[in-house]
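Request: Give me one sample?
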Amino acid sequence: MPDSAALVRKFHLSLNVSDLSKSVAFYQVLFGKPAAKHHADYAKFEVESPPAVVSLVPGRSGPAGALNHVGLCLLDAEELVAIQVRLEEAGHKTLREDGVACCYSRQTKFWVRDPDGVLLELYIFHEDMDDHGDGHAPDHELPTGMDGGSDPDAPVASWTHQLGEEVTLPLAMETNSLQEVVLEGTFNMAPASLDLPALLRDVLRALRPGGKVTLHGLAADRPLTGPCSSLPGPAAAVQHVPDFPSLITQLQAAGFASARFTKLSEKGYFEAEGIPLREVLIEAVKPGFRSSKKDQTVVYLGPQSAVEDDFGNRYAKGCPTPVTMHDWLMLKTGSAGQFTLLKRKAEAPPCGDACAEAGIDSKEAMPTKARYIMIGGFLGAGKTTTVGRLAKYLTDQGLRVGLITNDQAGGLVDTKLLRGQGYATEEIAGGCFCCRFNTLVEAANKLSDQAKPDVFIAEPVGSCTDLVATVTYPLRRMYGDAFTVAPLSVLVDPVRARRVFGLDAGGSFSSKVAYIFKKQLEEADIIVISKSDLLGEEAREELRAVLQKEFPVARIVTASPREETGLTDLFSQLMTDEQARRNPMAVDYEVYADGEALLGWLNATVTLKATEEFEANDFLRALATNVQEQLQKEGTEIAHFKMTYSPDDGIAGELASINLVRSDYIPELGMELDEPSEGGQLIVNLRAEADPATLMEAVKTGLEETTASFPTLTAKLEHEEHFRPGKPTPTHRDE
């Protein structure tokens, strides 16, 4: 098929014929042109008006009589995926085949049946071939209609192995003959009786391109030093328990793609050598055929200067690189936020010789999905500083960013700080992301209209947890065509964490507030020991060991956003890795609600005026210290106290800020003004485990006493909100 044919959608009709030669002769007369392909077992006509592909398949009629199937040849992979997602979301089962050899060509396609059983094929064309290939219309793999029913007598293209059954290699199945393989407890057999890597390689051989393998059994958090001792009940048949990270590695080594956990039990069912043994369910797919035709052109956006994929393609940042359709689909699956696909143009592009040689128009870039990154953590963990550092890191790489802040009330210091750094920022007030999910999506849409971000960075409320089940999973389920979701990173203040986990004495929270603190860490994909410069190496490693034991699934990294150390590796993971699917954690929403209700919340806006210039930096330090001392007298534990001051006569974005993250710490100036001020706006955010009225009284008293020490300075409270957060009620929760 010529390249230009791929630029037109074509209706496709496949007919069963009893005599191929007679049918070819008939359709040559009908269409007034010879067959585009004519083989002993297949013929095809390309019709220009109306655009159509009519294929003839010799053999007896099938369930639909002379009709074999109907279909549509589409323009590109994006359109193919969009239609398949639309059908699946409406309840229609589809069968995907990537890079399959079929009908003397290489295609990527999916099949679906309409409610009356008519088989439809939607596909994109890659290249012509000299042989028919193994692809064929699926006779029994797809159900009719939406009820998922199928012919009970139809052969099932799958194979299941159970723990304890003998495995003989090579498997008796033909190459590319299976759609699914289930290994039920297989990896729990003794290594002496099973060569698991060899079995996985042979399973790959037997599966069709796009076919799935599922592994189910018991796995340990880390490698055991010896054979597994006898386990009780049905688990007594288990002879070997691998560590679960090694299973992903073995699947990848065998040649599988998209290996991921679909279940990883929250708690271990058993224990061996003091290590929890968890139930795991892992899925992976056989990659499609890699055509040699490099008919797609992509541009790598960063963050590194150059990267190389699993297929030997090297991508220099900013340079167009030709790749195959298969390799582009793999890039979309694994690193979508880092690449842009460029449209091919039939005419010569206007962008110079380099673009002309690549066959692209650099002005017609088709952006891939936007990246969604959420940086969580308890109040005072350093989220806003990290968000600002990540935003700068990405913009330095040439990417556009959009920021979304979140609070239980309006007037957020974080929003002021981030907008002051020049970033497009939307604020969601009145509840956490989980309870304002639709508003979160609206904020992303608004940012898309304003700044067209490549990356969205969201900072949730510091007292919020259960973000995976209520935010990232629903986002991926409902808006997976618009976003790729990064692993959830949760920052932890190391001094606060050592107190919560009993490693150090000092002010801490009550048990229900600590429940939220720990639940945030439990659901994290990446736990970041933030402000790592505050601890010595021994104390830092002791904390790391505790966190790794308590939360074995998470990766533990150390960083100091303030000192700008340890951030590059973290940011690289957030831009390249995908959030793994696992069972959402169990959350007691009554305890969660009680914990949030113990926290007092105060937001206030104050106008400062003076007839003589005053040092705003000194004022912030004095006010923060005054409020801190009052709350210490009440025995109140401060979670986070932060303020910004914006001078009326300052340039855009100029401000001073101060931050206090524990009652027994020292207020720290984050940003300072270079010149004295005669007036401006003060924003106060205070969160502590105390009655909100106590917080309001401390701030009012602090303002009165502090302004009195600055001649001619007055403070007018323009707006204030003080309250306890209500019980969280998520918009969605994916189990």
Summary: The first strand starts at residue 10 and ends at 17. Confidence is low (pLDDT under 50) at residues 1-6, 60-64, 144-156, 343-367.
